[in-house]
Amino acid sequence: MGAVGVEDVLLPGIDVHVTAVRVAAEGVVVEASACGGTPSCPDCGCPGRRIHSRYTRRLAERPVVGRRLVISLQVRRFFCERRTCNRRTFAEQVPDLTERQRRHSVGLRRWMRTIATFLGGRPGERLCRTLQLPAGRTHLLGLLTAPAVPEQAPRVLGVDEFAFRKGWRYGTVLVDVEAAHVVDVLPDRDAVTFADWLREHPGTEIICRDRASAYSSAVRDAAPDAQEVADRWHLLANLSSAVEKTCHQHRHCLRKKAEADAQPRPIINPLPPPTLPPTKIAVRTRDRYADIHRLLAEGRSVSAIARLLHLDRKTVRRFRDTDLDQLLSSSDLSQRFVVSRV
């Protein structure tokens, strides 16, 4: 095993020569110089052969042993010898370490961009402070750039709605099902918006969606050759909902079957079953069920009933689409849960 230099420990794989390492108030300072080959002009690509001057750049690097790391890098500035080029001089860049007009190394920017992506501004700033990274929330958020939207849509496209603000504003998220990443986000869930996106990004062969009619009409208009399928989540959700509703509707039959199979021993002088007084929740559920169905029979809309009874529209729809026995069983279970908690 050969000798390992400071460059291999602190800056592995980077073409620099370390001349000194010292500890200062700002952290660990590494003095180094670029030792790469002949750089090229960033505008015209002409190789630089004549050195104009040398200067020192200070770069923040990823921390080492819990202390900040600063690279004091000496770089060369070259003449551009092509007369037609507007740039007269240019500075060399060290691959995987420096970028033009940046005070952070490439690796440190990659770290901070990852932190900003997963945590955002203020939580990311707190983590950077713990890790000794020189970054504030504004700088972290500035590192976030919108990913480029591909010109061609993925082969298998997933589409579903999501809430910017639940109950008020909804959008549409488009996902590459095979690659498992988000492709684009649409500002609403209208069929026209989704159809325009499909026309601008052709190439989709399979579209996984829920049963919303807006997305179906958009696919028929903009991508008639694409095959529409229901995604697994909605299939399982619909199946579980149907099974649960069926079991609720036939729970009396199941109870009778269980009682018949049990064959209890005969009881001498059996007592009559106790009659429990109805709970407040059961009474309120019955009254609310009767009021909602009476207003529905009068031809009132869901929104009108919700305003009249001071209820949420989702509550009105649930009482409209669910039978009374199922609602009473749900209220009875919730009442038992509250009593058991007390």
UniProtKB/TrEMBL annotation:
It holds the Pfam family DDE_Tnp_ISL3. Residues 39-81 form the Transposase IS204/IS1001/IS1096/IS1165 zinc-finger domain. Residues 157-258 form the Transposase IS204/IS1001/IS1096/IS1165 DDE domain. InterPro entries: Transpos_ISL3, Transposase_DDE, Transposase_Znf. It comes from the Bacteria. This is ISL3 family transposase. It comes from Streptomyces sp. NBC_01393.
